[in-house]
C-alpha cells in the first residue's frame, strides 16, 4: 500500500513535491490543496484532484501525510500547527531563529491530534543541520563553518527588485575561495561576513533609470549588501531571462576539529551540495521526511520532530536488511 | 551522572576510545579490559583499573556501555555477541560482506540480555554509510561513488610486509584526480578499479634483497595490487619511521542524481573526510555511538542497531532544545 500524500500550496515547492512523490516507488499523490480557485489550477499529474483549501478537513481519512508548501514568513507558522492536529505533516520552515517557537506550537497540536509533525526539512535547515549535528557529536573540540552558494538567493533578488528604477534582478551568493581554502587547510580562520561570501547581482533597469544611483543603493543596503563585497552587472531583460532564470544553489558545511592527547591530530569533515534546482532538492528531502513521518505515526508516536530526531533508515524506502547489505 | 564506559582491548582503537571518552563531558572511563597480563599494561588515565578479560562478568553493574576494540577478522565476530548478552556494546566491525550475519548474531544476544548492541560504527562503515543512505533516500534516481584516501591502508601495508625480502612497508591509497573531477562534474562516469585509486608503496628492503623481484611481486599481487596502478618507492627504515609513521586516512562519498519532470536538474552531494588519525576519528565515532546506545537502553530498547537506526540527536551530548536552537 502506497503512502498517500497531500500537497498544500502549488508554487515552486508544491510542484517539486509532486515530482518527488511521483518518483518514489512507495508514494502516491492523493490531492493538491490550494487557496486559489481549484478550477484555475492545472497540475502535472493526471487524475489527481485539485481541492479548495477550505475542504481540507474532509480529507482526513484519505491522506497519510500532508506536505505543506507555503512560505516561512506567514504561511507555515499558522498552517503547520493548524494541520498537525488533523494530519501527519511535513514542512520546510526555515526561519532559524523562530524554530524553537514553531517546534513548540507544532508539538502541542500534533500531540493533541495523535499525529506526527516534521518541521524544517530541506537542506538548511535540514541536511546541513544533520551535517553540523553529526560532526559536532564526533568532534566536540572543533569549529563549524557554513558557506552558501554558488546560488540564487531569492530574498536578496527580491530586495534588489524593491529598489527604485529596477525592473528585474537576480542575486548570486558566492563563497570566497580563499576562505574555503583556509578552512580546508585546518587553519581555523576567524572570518568576517565580507570574508565568507561575495554577492553578485544581475540587474535590469527600468527605462531612464539612473544606473549609478541604483548601484549605490544596492551596495549600501543594510543587512542585505552593506557588509559584503557586492558586484553589480546591468543586463537586458532578455539576457536575464535567458541566462539567469534557473534556481541553482548549494553550499558547504565544514567542521574542523582535533583529537589526541595533546589535540595533535586535525580532522576536516566537509559536506557539500551542488544543486541545479534549489526547490526540487528541498522537496526531495520533504518527500523522504514524509515517509519517515508515516513510519513514526504507524509506530504510535506523536508530536513534533526535526530531521535530528529521525533514524536515517526511516527516510529510505529500502528495508533494514537491504540497507545493511548494500549501503552500510 | 556520567555514562560509565568500559574498553575491551588496548591497541590503537582502545587508546583512541580512552582519549575520546576523556574528552566527552558526559562520560567517564570505568575500566580497561585486556587479554594480556593486566600488570603489564599502563594506560594514560590515572586511577582507572586495568582488568583481566576473564573478570569482565563481575563488572556487569559497574559499566553502562562496553566499547569493543578488537579486530573484525577474528575478535569481534565472537566478542560482540558474547558481551552483548551482558552489556550494552559498541563495535567497529568493518567486514562489509559479513555485516548481515554479525547483525543477526548480536541482535539475538542483545535481545536475550535486554541490552543494546551498536555495530559497525566508524567512518566506513559508519559516517560513509550515513552519507550513502541519506543521499539515496533523497535522490532515488542517481549513482553512488565512494573513494578512499589519501590514506594508509593497513591491510595493504601488511600484505607488502609478507613479501620475501621486505623488512617494513607503508601503503597509501590515493583517489585518482580525474575520476573525482568527472564525478563532481555530474558526468556519471563508469569507473574501473584502476581508474578510481592509485596505490603508492614505501618499502624498506632487507639486506641483500632483490629490489626488482620485490617490486614485481608487489605489482602483480592479486586482489591487493594487480588491478591498480601501483607506485613502489624503496626507502630506508629511518625514512619510513620519520615520514610515514602516522595513520592518516579519509575519503569521499558522492551521490550524483537528478530530479525534474524530464530529469533535467542535476544534483551532487559530496561528503568528505580528511583525517590525521584514522583510529582516533573512528574511536570518536565509537564514543558518540556509546552515548546513543546508553540512551536507547534507558528507553527500554534492546537488540542490534547500526548508525542507520540511530536518531542523530542521540549521538550528541546536547539536549534537543540546544540542538534546535543552535545547530538546526
Largest interface: A-B, 69 and 69 residues
Largest sheet properties of chain A: 7 strands, parallel
Mean pLDDT of chain A: 97
Distance between the termini of chain A: 27 Å
Widest sheet: strand ordering of chain A: 3-2-1-4-5-6-14
Task: List low-confidence stretches of chain A.
Answer: none
> Structural class of the helices, strands and pairings of chain A?
alpha/beta
The gross shape of chain A turns out to be globular
Q: What is the N-to-C order of secondary-structure elements of chain A (H for helix, E for strand)?
A: EHEEEHEHEHEEHEHHEHEHEEHEH
Note the beta-strand portion of chain A.
25-35%
Residue share in helix of chain A: 25-40%
What's the tally of helices of chain A? 11
Please tally the β strands of chain A and state the result: 14
Gyration radius over CA of chain A = 22 Å
Counting copies of identical and different chains, the oligomeric state is homodimer
Sequence-ordered SSE layout with sheet pairings:
The structure is a homodimer of 328-residue chains.
Chain A: E1 3-8, H1 12-23, E2 27-34, E3 50-52, E4 65-68, H2 75-84, E5 88-90, H3 99-113, E6 116-118, H4 127-138, E7 142-148, E8 151-152, H5 154-161, E9 166-175, H6 177-184, H7 193-196, E10 197-205, H8 211-219, E11 229-234, H9 237-243, E12 249-259, E13 265-275, H10 278-298, E14 303-305, H11 320-326
Parallel strand pairs in A: 1-2, 1-4, 2-3, 4-5, 5-6, 6-14, 10-11
Antiparallel strand pairs in A: 7-12, 8-9, 9-10, 12-13
Helix pairs in contact in A: 1-10, 2-3
Amino acid at each position: 500500500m502506497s503512502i498517500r500524500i497531500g500537497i498544500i500550496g502549488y508554487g515552486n515547492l508544491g510542484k517539486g513535491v509532486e515530482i518527488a512523490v511521483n518518483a518514489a516507488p512507495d508514494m502516491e499523490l492523493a490531492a493538491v490543496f490550494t487557496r486559489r480557485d481549484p478550477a484555475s489550477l492545472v497540475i502535472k499529474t493526471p487524475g489527481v484532484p485539485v481541492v479548495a483549501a477550505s475542504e481540507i478537513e474532509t480529507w482526513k481519512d484519505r491522506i497519510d501525510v500532508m506536505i505543506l508548501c507555503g512560505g516561512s514568513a506567514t504561511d507555515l507558522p499558522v498552517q503547520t500547527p493548524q494541520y498537525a492536529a488533523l494530519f501527519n505533516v511535513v514542512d520546510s520552515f526555515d526561519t532559524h531563529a523562530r524554530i524553537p517557537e514553531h517546534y513548540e506550537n507544532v508539538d502541542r497540536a500534533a500531540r493533541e491530534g495523535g499525529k506526527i509533525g516534521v518541521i524544517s526539512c530541506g537542506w538548511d535547515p535540514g541536511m546541513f543541520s544533520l551535517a553540523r549535528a553529526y560532526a559536532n557529536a564526533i568532534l566536540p573540540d572543533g569549529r563549524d563553518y557554513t558557506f552558501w552558494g554558488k546560488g540564487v538567493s531569492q530574498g536578496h533578488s527580491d530586495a534588489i527588485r524593491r529598489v527604485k528604477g529596477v525592473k528585474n534582478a537576480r542575486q548570486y551568493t558566492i563563497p570566497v575561495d580563499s576562505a574555503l581554502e583556509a578552512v580546508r587547510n585546518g587553519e581555523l580562520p576567524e572570518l568576517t561576513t565580507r570574508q565568507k561570501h561575495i554577492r553578485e547581482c544581475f540587474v535590469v533597469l527600468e527605462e531612464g533609470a539612473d544606473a549609478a544611483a541604483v548601484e549605490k543603493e544596492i551596495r549600501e543596503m543594510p543587512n542585505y549588501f552593506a557588509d559584503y563585497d557586492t558586484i553589480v552587472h546591468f543586463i537586458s531583460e532578455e539576457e536575464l531571462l535567458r541566462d539567469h532564470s534557473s534556481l541553482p544553489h548549494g553550499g558547504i558545511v565544514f567542521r574542523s576539529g582535533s583529537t589526541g592527547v595533546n589535540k595533535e591530530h586535525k580532522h576536516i569533515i566537509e559536506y557539500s551540495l551542488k544543486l541545479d534546482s534549489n526547490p526540487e532538492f528541498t522537496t526531495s528531502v520533504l518527500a523522504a521526511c514524509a515517509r519517515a513521518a508515516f513510519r513514526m505515526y504507524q509506530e504510535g508516536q506523536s508530536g513534533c520532530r526535526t530531521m535530528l530526531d529521525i533514524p536515517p533508515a526511516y527516510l529510505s524506502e529500502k528495508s533494514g536488511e537491504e540497507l545493511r547489505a548494500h549501503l552500510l
